[in-house]
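User: Good morning. I'm curious how adenine would be positioned relative to this chain. Could you predict the structure with it bound?
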Amino acid sequence: MSPTDRPALRIDILTLFPEVFGPFLQTSILGIAARKGLVEYHLHNIRDYSPDKHQKVDDRPYGGGPGMVMRCEPVFRCYEAVRDMDERAGRLLLLTPQGRQFDQAMARDLSRSGRLIVLCGRYEGFDERIRRGMPAEEVSIGDYVLSGGEPAAMVVADATVRLVPGVLGHEESAQNDSFADGLLEYPHYTRPAEFRRMKVPDVLLSGNHQEIEQWRREQAVKRTRSRRSDLLGHEDERMESKNG
Ligand code: ADE
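Assistant: Good morning! Here's the predicted structure, ligand included:
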C-alpha cells in the first residue's frame, strides 16, 4: 500500500484521558497495523472542546444525587469537529454498561466499517441528551462497571483491528481464533514434547495433517461444550455433516 492511500480503518477516540492510549496503540498487533498503514488512530481530548475558560467537562446532576455528569457541550463540539475531519462517516460508538454487548461478530462488522468514532465516558454518566442527540450505537464490553470507557475502547479497538485484512501475518490465524467459527480455540503446544511429565498429544507429533485437523476440531467442540455450551447451537450437526 502506498502512503497516500487511505487506511482500511480510521479510529478516532474521544476521551478525557488520551494519554492512557499511547503505548497501548503502539504495541504489538495494533502498533504493527498502524506502521503498515492499514489503520490510523487519532486521539481527541474532549476537554479541549469545552466552551468555558476553566474547561469544565462535568457538572452536578439536576435533581441532586451523587457524582458528576458529563456535559453536553464539550461532547457535541468534540464529536462534530472530529466527524468533519474525514469524509467517511463511519460508525459512532458510545461506550457504556447500558449498551449492546460487544462480541466477535460486532468486531468483524466494525473492522469493515472504514471509520470508527469511539466516545469514552467518565463520571456518573453522560447527560441524557448526548444519547438522544447523537447518532451513536451504545456498546458495553460486559456486565460490570468500569470507572470510564477507556479500557472498553481499548478492548473494542484491539478486537477490531486484528480483523482488518492484512493486519495478521497469517490470514488463517484470525480464522482459528476462539469465536471465529462460534467455537473456543483448540489447545496449543510447543516444544518441548514433554514438560514436567506432561506430554504433547501424540497426534500433534505424527505429521498427519488430516488427523491433526480432525483432532483440533474435536478438541474445540469438546472445550466449547464443557466451558461455553451456550455457544454451541447446531455445532454437533455441523460436525456430523463434516465427518459423515
Ligand atoms: N463504561 C463503564 N463501564 C463500561 C462497560 N462495561 N462497557 C463499556 N463502557 C463502560
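The longest helix spans residues 209-227. The longest strand covers residues 91-101.
Let me know if you'd like a different ligand tried.
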